[in-house]
Amino acid sequence: MAFVLIAFMILFGLVAMFYVSLRLSSVRGEVYDLRHEQAEELVRKLAGTPEFSWTIDDCASCVDMDKVFVLKNKSATYQTFWGNSVRMLRVQQVSPRAERDIECTESTYPACGKITLISRGAGYSTDEAFVSLCRIEGAERRCTFGKLIIGVASP
Amino acid sequence: MSQRGQEEIVGFVVVIIVISVALLIFLALSLREDPATRESVTLSQFVTTLSMYTTSCSLTSHRYAPLGEVYAACYAGERCLDGTNSCALVNETVNTILSDSLDAGVGRPIEGYTFTLRSFENGTQSAASRPLLALSKGNCTGTKQQGVSDFVPGRGRVVIQAHLLTC
């Protein structure tokens, strides 16, 4: 009887270990998801800061491209404005596809779709949030569909 | 001797019952699945941002209307000033943006998506709704994520709800 009990205990122990390892792997996945969500929240907050936000009329998800373009020209001042860990910061047009890979410069703006504010080497992971990229054209607001991408130094 | 044998059997039965209960609890915990569809802030923001996109449709003046206003025109059966069918324009614009931004397909991070646009006469809680648009791509089999955004045109009780489901 004692041997049967020992055998059951060993079996039960093995099953418990198997279960704990399964649970741990799912916890790791949840931690990854949570960190990813936090990073995305950070990007959304960034889109709402005065340096980016559209303030001419009410639009919570709009980024003012004219402001961002002016900011690009002052990027030397803003290199560490959002912290030393921010290695890359870019506003990228997604749709329409035309012009989306053209970097905005004095000569290309506004016929362009990408404004890179910070680009400081490699070794970072990126997170992004969808935003409307708006600017005044004529006397009206024109918005395209885009995203704000931030690259934070990997720990 | 007979009494000792009976004790052994009772003990054995108790051990079997305890282990069976433990295994049942383990099975119940391990078979408990994640919810089939998770709410996603990113996708909700996606559909909200979508409604701000400036289309090529003018509705009331020489101002190009954002997609959210063209949803309302589609619901009301109105056309753009140049005669374009507003529902056809919504279909084309949303389809283009989804293709440009989600890049769905087999072996990609997003395998498929479904986008629906519905109108609710008396708020989103009411059962009576009318489908305005339904677009989908790929096959949704795994864990799904969804985002919802409500658009209220004018001051009426009509709510137009955009819903995006990805997997």
Chart the SSEs and their pairings.
The complex is a heterodimer of chains A (155) and B (167).
Chain A: H1 2-47, E1 62-64, H2 65-73, H3 75-78, E2 86-95, E3 114-119, E4 124-137, E5 140-153
Parallel strand pairs in A: 1-4
Antiparallel strand pairs in A: 2-3, 2-5, 4-5
Chain B: H1 2-31, E1 37-39, H2 41-50, E2 54-58, E3 64-66, H3 67-76, H4 86-102, E4 113-120, E5 129-137, E6 144-151, E7 159-166
Parallel strand pairs in B: 1-6
Antiparallel strand pairs in B: 2-3, 4-5, 4-7, 6-7
Describe the overall structure.
The complex is a heterodimer of chains A (155) and B (167). Chain A contains 3 helices and 5 strands. Chain A has helices spanning 2-47, 65-73, 75-78; strands spanning 62-64, 86-95, 114-119, 124-137, 140-153. A 5-stranded mixed sheet of chain A has the order 1-4-5-2-3. In chain B, a hairpin with a 5-residue loop joins strand 2 (54-58) and strand 3. The longest helix of chain B has 30 residues, at 2-31. In chain B, helix 3 (67-76) runs antiparallel to helix 4 (86-102). In chain B, 29% of the residues are buried. The radius of gyration of chain B is 27 Å and the shape is elongated. Chain B has 167 residues and is an alpha+beta fold. The A-B interface holds A 1, 4-5, 8, 11-12, 15-16, 19, 22, 37, 40-41, 44, 59-62, 94-97, 129-132, 134, 140-145, 147 and B 8, 11-12, 15, 19, 22-23, 26, 29-30, 41-42, 45-46, 48-50, 52-54, 63-64, 66, 96-97, 100-101.
Label this structure with key terms.
heterodimer, A: 155 residues, alpha+beta, 5-stranded mixed sheet, 5 strands, B: 167 residues, two-stranded antiparallel ribbon, 40% helix
